[in-house]
UniProtKB/TrEMBL annotation:
The keyword Zinc applies. GO terms for biological process: ubiquitin-dependent protein catabolic process. Residues 17-52 form the RING-type domain. Keywords: Metal-binding, Zinc, Zinc-finger. This is RING-type domain-containing protein. It comes from Kingdonia uniflora.
Length: 54
């Protein structure tokens, strides 16, 4: 999970909310773009992935 690349969210026409917590992204918030091209809040995806692989 440490290899997940985080970046700051910039306005996107396709993805407006995190699929884990369902909250809308705010410009500048830290997000992670997964290989599947879905975008998640960094904290949400780290917790979700951790709960799936324990």
């Amino acid at each position: 999970m440490e290899a997940l690349e985080a970046k700051n969210f910039e306005e996107s026409g396709d993805c407006e909310s995190c699929k884990v917590c369902r909250e809308d992204f705010v410009i500048g918030v830290e997000v992670t773009l997964m290989p599947c091209l879905h975008i998640f809040h960094k904290g949400c995806i780290v917790v979700w992935l951790g709960s799936r692989y324990t």
